Predict the structure.
Amino acid sequence: MSKIYSDAESALAGLTFDGMMVMSGGFGLCGIAENLIAALRGSGVTGLTVISNNAGIDGFGLGQLLETRQIKKMISSYVGENKEFERQYLGGELELEFNPQGTLAERIRAGGAGIPGFYTKTGVGTLIAEGKEHKAFKNSDGEMETYILETGLKADLSIIKAWKGDAAGNLIFKATARNFSPMMAMGGKVTVAEVDEIVPIGTLDPNFIHTPGVFVQRIIEAKCEKRIENLTLRERSA
Amino acid sequence: MSSERIGWTRDQMAARAAKELQDGFYVNLGIGIPTLVANHIPDGVDVTLQSENGMLGMGPFPFEGEEDADLINAGKQTITTLPKSSFFDSATSFAMIRGGHIDLSILGAMEVSENGDIANWMIPGKMVKGMGGAMDLVAGVKRCIALFDHTNKRGESKFLKACTLPLTGQNCIDMIITDLAVFEFDKTQKRFKLIELASSVSLDVLKSKTEATVIYD
């Protein structure tokens, strides 16, 4: 059975509903599923809870869903590049749950791996630890150390971006565009991937597949704008 | 009153921090002044830079025309690879960080307290940005150096008895490098000890600009 869909709209057909939880891959604007985000906006779905490391920038990436007020709540580690986000949040129009970046990655991984919770020392003694179970474990030096309980995360839908994929849903990612997407592929009840290139089955070397096809239900080939957030160059010496 | 600058420049602070790098170290550099440390890695010292968005062996910024939108660092700057580079997902990246596999983290700070607490992620009601990977870094990396200006714009100490801002981590800073001085945390006395004054900074000036209780001798 081929998992290939013709475009972003058809790939999301039947998957969206108001109040749903969505995981969206990417770090900043690197490795975001641009076409699927646009299709989610076009679907008109509202009341979204979006799990994503960042919230895009004004007018691009998840910023497009903030503009239209389709997002009710964000679960993120860093949202510093988005004025509209800050305005909606400080105005009480948007809920926000900050997670340390490593805790967020592990919560997504755990959710998809069937692990309901785990203990971590990240955030002990900070606002993040408030209201969470604390437990002491022996560290590698034999001393007791305090950890907090964090829970696994699951989503109704994950939208991710990969470099190459095939009809079986196998994916490989390029460079640092991988970031959260492999865990989100596991954490979504349904995962839709958009890729730069769909290749024939058998083209991808099984030794080098990053995300095995079992985690991906639908796949599209789509062109991305791939905006650079912070172009930084080195001078050529004369 | 003289407005003449005393102490180290940002570049000199970064150069001082670079002296803490050891051959073979895996190092994570934070955004801001810590990023400049990469320009001062001593000759003969081979360090591997980790970027928490999923890369080991970060190379220099690209030449114009060679930038790749899929290849960035944690500050979202375009970067390049080195022959030894590797890429991985965010869970693996933070397994390195939380699991104690990274030797050194150099990060910026808004406040550090005399017992080694650090605050660098939010100002309530004012700045809503988030902690990114900072809480994981201070909790998991073997050694953490806070690199920051000793005082704020009003000339008040940022090295305090207790942090006033929400914490990033507790008892986690091993060394402080500011524009005025270097302090090492003494684990037995549970206080920082002055180990170096910046050029042109007197002990009296340092004391007048430091709220924290510090071992000066």
